[in-house]
């Protein structure tokens, strides 16, 4: 039981800026076991954003409140996933060979495509959260849970595009058992918050999109990297928000 809690805390420590000032075991096996908790990490991030929304919507108009929850998400995650989508777009749209794409993705400098992708990512989230939050505020929690589950899915089906990198702690390390346990956790949490049919629709859409994105990444660089995990997370969040907005109409 102690090791399970440590693996959960390791995921919080690794994927967020939430202060977990503990010296935790961080062998590859710990990341493998900890992967089941990615949707729980999504729940924690979403719950923080939801709490901030419920606090500020009482004293501020909707629009600045949405800006604050977006900023809160960036602070809590350290912009980890936004950085991933930016680096991925810089690499994928460079129209270079596989090795050159990976080199561009590793470059700490921001290119035009990264800048554009981050701007549109935040614009989509701003517009969609503004649309759904007044009638379905719990959706603020639902979205990061689903996106983190699809991360577990892609690291289960994907393969490494390079020999080293943060993504290698998960990719080709996490198996079907971890995916299944993560699925049970995800559905268990989501069914407590929304209609079961809607849960199935959102999870199915996220998984299908992720499978397609995995194949696209494989065609570009032969596999996936940590940046691609971040990009997939962001894109699935936007897709989930769009579907929730459609459901609520």
UniProtKB/TrEMBL annotation:
<comment type="function">
    <text>Joins adenosylcobinamide-GDP and alpha-ribazole to generate adenosylcobalamin (Ado-cobalamin). Also synthesizes adenosylcobalamin 5'-phosphate from adenosylcobinamide-GDP and alpha-ribazole 5'-phosphate.</text>
</comment>
<keyword id="KW-1003">Cell membrane</keyword>
<feature type="transmembrane region" description="Helical">
    <location>
        <begin position="135"/>
        <end position="158"/>
    </location>
</feature>
<comment type="pathway">
    <text>Cofactor biosynthesis; adenosylcobalamin biosynthesis; adenosylcobalamin from cob(II)yrinate a,c-diamide: step 7/7.</text>
</comment>
<protein>
    <recommendedName>
        <fullName>Adenosylcobinamide-GDP ribazoletransferase</fullName>
        <ecNumber>2.7.8.26</ecNumber>
    </recommendedName>
</protein>
<keyword id="KW-0460">Magnesium</keyword>
<dbReference type="GO" id="GO:0051073">
    <property type="term" value="F:adenosylcobinamide-GDP ribazoletransferase activity"/>
</dbReference>
<feature type="transmembrane region" description="Helical">
    <location>
        <begin position="179"/>
        <end position="208"/>
    </location>
</feature>
<feature type="transmembrane region" description="Helical">
    <location>
        <begin position="65"/>
        <end position="82"/>
    </location>
</feature>
<keyword id="KW-1133">Transmembrane helix</keyword>
<keyword id="KW-0472">Membrane</keyword>
<keyword id="KW-0812">Transmembrane</keyword>
<feature type="transmembrane region" description="Helical">
    <location>
        <begin position="35"/>
        <end position="53"/>
    </location>
</feature>
<dbReference type="InterPro" id="IPR003805">
    <property type="entry name" value="CobS"/>
</dbReference>
<keyword id="KW-0808">Transferase</keyword>
<keyword id="KW-0169">Cobalamin biosynthesis</keyword>
<dbReference type="Pfam" id="PF02654">
    <property type="entry name" value="CobS"/>
</dbReference>
<feature type="transmembrane region" description="Helical">
    <location>
        <begin position="110"/>
        <end position="129"/>
    </location>
</feature>
<comment type="similarity">
    <text>Belongs to the CobS family.</text>
</comment>
<feature type="transmembrane region" description="Helical">
    <location>
        <begin position="228"/>
        <end position="248"/>
    </location>
</feature>
């Amino acid at each position: 039981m102690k090791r399970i809690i440590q693996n959960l805390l390791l995921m919080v420590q690794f994927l967020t800026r939430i202060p977990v000032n503990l010296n935790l075991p961080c062998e590859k096996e710990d990341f493998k076991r900890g992967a089941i908790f990615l949707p729980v990490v999504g729940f924690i991030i979403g719950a923080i954003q939801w709490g901030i929304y419920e606090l500020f919507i009482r004293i501020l108009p909707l629009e600045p409140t949405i800006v604050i929850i977006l900023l809160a998400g960036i602070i809590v995650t350290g912009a980890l996933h936004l950085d991933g989508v930016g680096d991925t777009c810089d690499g994928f749209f460079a129209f270079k060979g596989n090795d050159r794409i990976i080199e561009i993705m590793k470059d700490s400098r921001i290119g035009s495509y990264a800048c554009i992708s981050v701007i549109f990512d935040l614009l989509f989230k701003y517009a969609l959260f503004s649309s759904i939050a007044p009638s379905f505020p719990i959706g603020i929690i639902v979205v990061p849970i689903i996106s983190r589950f699809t991360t577990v899915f892609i690291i289960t089906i994907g393969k490494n595009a390079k020999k080293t990198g943060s993504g290698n702690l998960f990719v080709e390390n996490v198996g079907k058992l971890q995916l299944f346990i993560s699925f049970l956790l995800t559905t268990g949490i989501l069914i407590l918050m929304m209609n079961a049919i809607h849960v199935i629709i959102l999870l199915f859409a996220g998984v299908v999109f992720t499978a397609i994105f995995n194949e696209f990444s494989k065609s570009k660089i032969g596999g996936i990297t940590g940046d691609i995990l971040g990009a997939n997370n962001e894109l699935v969040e936007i897709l989930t928000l769009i579907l929730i907005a459609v459901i609520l109409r």
